[in-house]
Design a protein that fits this description.
The protein is α/β, with parallel strands linked by helices. 29% of the residues lie in helices and 19% in strands. It is built from 10 helices and 17 strands. A hairpin with a 2-residue loop joins strand 2 and strand 3. Helix 1 crosses helix 3, helix 5 packs across helix 10 and helix 8 packs parallel to helix 9.
């Protein structure tokens, strides 16, 4: 595939597919069609059984008017005074309704670029084969589970597939509660773990919003953001252990109420909390405190996993720890609806005593 076909930063040479009679790969044709312009006006392209149709794009004003009528008022757009009208994406770029190419430095969903030909091709093939739930036998789910868990340290080997990062973190909380018998969850200040009610309860990024009156949940504890730049502990040599002491204090307060810790949730690198690298030793000390109290440790890799930190495949590896549960989302499907919870056989056995689990499989 010619490098110019796809403008992402990924080496696409390894993703070549057999060329057609005209010498152009199917993926290259797909990318070329997505770049077509009709009468100087960008158009959306819909391909059905090889037929491509052009649909005129609504104006920015028409879209905003329709959003006001049909989309919830608290679903914001970026730059509301003059919002971007994005008609397509390719690699690291967005393209607006005027055909202007915009470097996408903010999108936290796509992992190998927008509309990567390999991802699109594989998704199209699977959609033409099967889309059902996990109650049936199909080799894709076990094949993928084996490949995924091979990237994780032992004993993380049991997968639960779901569709969103929020769903994965909600499920992780269920696993933790089933295994420990406790309800109490500890999370870090400024963290965001999802938008279900339970996750908002312990995600201060959400429940501290001035308009959100319920506030923090009854079974949630929030500890200091372990930041060595603006935080209360700034010496890199001691900050990890000192910030971890906040978690120990939170555990003591939980126990004084006669409650049981179920889980500690934390990203290996704070994403929405400010792209903060955790101080050395932080998670090692925290995980010991949590496990000593009978709780489990959850690594939220929804936004920071799959090599996004650069030096490691998983962000938690930067801390030299092995979690009890790992959650994955956005990059696992390049932004498409796929998420996974991976845990240990022991925790999976505890969860199996509660109720059955199934989900739709976009694999």
């Amino acid at each position: 595939m010619p490098a110019s076909t796809y403008e992402g930063s990924i080496d696409t040479a390894a993703l070549k597919r057999p060329a057609a009679a005209d010498g152009v790969t199917p993926s290259a044709k797909m990318c070329k069609k997505s770049e077509e312009v009709t009468n100087g006006q960008a158009s959306s392209q819909v391909s059905t059984n090889g037929q491509t149709s052009s649909t005129p794009i609504m104006s920015k004003e028409e879209i905003m008017d329709s959003r006001r009528k049909h989309i919830g008022p608290n679903v914001p757009v970026f730059f509301p005074e003059d919002p971007l009208h994005i008609v397509r994406g390719s690699g690291q770029y967005f393209y607006d309704d005027k055909g202007q190419r915009i470097l996408d430095c903010i999108n936290n969903v796509c992992h190998v670029g927008h509309c990567h030909p390999h991802v699109v091709e594989r998704a199209q093939k699977q959609m033409a084969v099967l889309n059902t739930n996990s109650r049936y036998l199909h080799e894709e789910i076990v094949t993928y589970a084996k490949r995924l868990t091979a990237k994780l340290p032992e004993p993380l080997s049991v997968c639960y597939f779901c569709c969103t990062g929020s769903e994965a973190n909600e499920l992780a909380a269920r696993l933790a509660r089933a295994h420990t018998g406790g309800q109490e969850i500890i999370a870090v200040d400024a963290a965001y773990h999802g938008h279900t009610q339970l996750l908002i309860d312990f995600s201060s990024y959400k429940h501290n919003h001035p308009g959100y009156t319920p506030g923090r949940g009854d079974h949630a504890s929030v500890v200091s953001l372990p930041c060595t730049y603006r935080g209360k502990h700034r010496d890199p040599a001691t900050a990890g252990e000192l910030y971890a002491a906040d978690v120990k204090d939170a555990i003591t307060k939980i126990q004084e109420k006669g409650e049981q810790v179920s889980a500690f949730f934390c990203e290996g690198l704070m994403s929405c909390g400010g792209q903060i690298v955790l101080p050395d030793g932080y998670l090692k000390h925290v995980y010991k405190h949590v496990r000593d109290a009978g709780g489990v440790c959850v690594a939220d890799e929804v936004q920071v996993g799959f090599g996004r930190v650069g030096s490691h495949f998983w962000a938690f590896e930067m801390q030299g720890v092995v979690p009890d549960i790992v959650t994955m989302g956005k990059p696992i499907g390049n932004g498409h609806p796929l998420a996974v919870v991976v845990t240990t056989p022991e925790i999976a056995a505890s969860f199996a005593k509660t109720t059955s689990y199934f989900n739709t499989l976009p694999l």
